[in-house]
Amino acid sequence: MQTANHISTSLTWIILFFACSFDYFCEADCSKAIHKFVPSQIRETGGYRLHCFEPKTPDGNVECYVHFVRKMGFEDGIKACKSLGARIITIRDAEHSKRISNWVEYSFYINAKRIEPKSAYFFYYIYPPKYTNIACDTSILGRDCMIVRTTGLWCTAQCEEKHSIVCEF
C-alpha cells in the first residue's frame, strides 16, 4: 500500500509540474495548485526542494519556490526555471531576502543581469528594482550576473559560476 501511495503522489507531482509548464505560456500562477496538491513530504526530496511560504502575499496568493540542489550557471538556471513554468527569483524586500536566504542556505542567483558587458547597469526583471542590497564593486568586468550570498548581501558573479537556483512561480 505504501508503494501505491508513493506512486500516486509522485505521479501527482509530475502531472502538476507538467501542467505548470504548460500554464507558463498562459501566464497562470501555479502556487495555489502546488500548495494544495503537493504533499509537504514530497516537496523536500530529490534534486530540488519545493517550499510554499505562509503567510500569504498582500494580494492573497501563496508564494511557492523551487530550489535546485544541483548548482548551475545563470543561463542553465533560466532554462531550469522555464522548464517548470517559473523564473529565477526576484527579491522584493529585506524580509523576502532573509526568508529565502534562510531556506536555501547557499548563495543563489537572482533575476538581474548586466545589460551589456561594459555597462555599469543591470537589468532586473522588475525595473527599476524596489529593493537592492548590493555590497560589492559592481564595476568588475566579466561579473555580469547577480547573486545573493548567505548573509543576504548581493554581489556580482560570473554568469558561468555555479550557484544555487531559486525559481518563483
Automatic annotation (TrEMBL):
It comes from Paragonimus skrjabini miyazakii. The lineage of its organism: Eukaryota, Metazoa, Spiralia, Lophotrochozoa, Platyhelminthes. InterPro entries: C-type_lectin-like, C-type_lectin-like/link_sf, CTDL_fold. This is C-type lectin domain-containing protein. It holds the Pfam family Lectin_C. Residues 1-28 form the signal peptide. Keywords: Signal. Residues 64-168 form the C-type lectin domain.
